[in-house]
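[Automated response] Your request has been received and processed.

Submitted sequence:
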Amino acid sequence: MKTKPKVVCLMGPTASGKTQLAVALHQQFASDIISVDSVMVYRGMDIGTAKPSATLLAQAPHQLIDVRDPTQPYCVANFCQDAQTFIQASLAAQRIPLLVGGSMLYFHALQTGLADMSAADTNVRRQLEHQANEQGWAALYTQLTQVDPVAAANINPNDRQRIQRALEIYHVTGKPMSQHWQQPLPPADYEFINLALIASDRAILHQRIEQRVQQMLADGLIAEVNGLFERGDLDLALPALRSVGYRQVWLYLQGAYDVQTMQDKITAATRQLAKRQLTWLRRWPNLQIIDALLPLSERLAAVKKILYRLSVI
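Generated structure:
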């Protein structure tokens, strides 16, 4: 039986220390880091994504960072195609592909297959956003129950992003999203070594999140978002601007919040993001868990032990 090529996936919630560990691994092994982050793909969005600095990227290059302008949507289908290209190039060079990030849907689609859905359509998305502003999201959810009752039954009536995406797919393709679910694309044909950085104490993770938000604001997050705001060609209908941190600062710049309210909302949204990431990880099969609270040297040793045992190194 032919052995499948091995691909290492380093996952974890926000603020768990994935980048630090990935760089340490890259410095010790012949590996290529491939970013799995749905927001780091956008240029000009650095502080709010905790994007590695230019100095760090020079030491440990990351693929799939800064590959889109914020006006250009980047979807999970784009990621799967791009990631496989970089994985194949890494394997051809006899190196270890090291996928690192917290976009769990991207990891899931790459490993299990992806329904054949259309790429994002900005114009349709803006029309839906306008309709929601005029009629309310409840009206859009009612519309979804009419055109795609199967998808609607699997979407929370308060989940605006998924409601919008389901209607977008329907309007662009003429077919309900649930019909696309029946036509999956095959998963990537690799052996995935799934590692997860999970904090043994959730309270400490929450402290790290709060500290990260404070540091981002101190580093100039408001100025960064203001630069995007003043471009004049961006709005909250775009996936890039709906991401955690950027949406809240954008609304602050529009006068919706004061500074403290904005900070509180970013912190709360980031904690919710971490909770969703951990929910994904709890049901991930064959997951190798490393305590995110261990010193870097101990985390590195734990990963090396796992990779050695699984014949990756």
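Summary generated for your ticket: Strands lie at 6-11, 31-36, 62-63, 96-101, 114-115, 184-185, 191-198, 288-291. The chain has two domains: 6-115+185-309, 122-182.
If you did not submit this request, please reply to this message.
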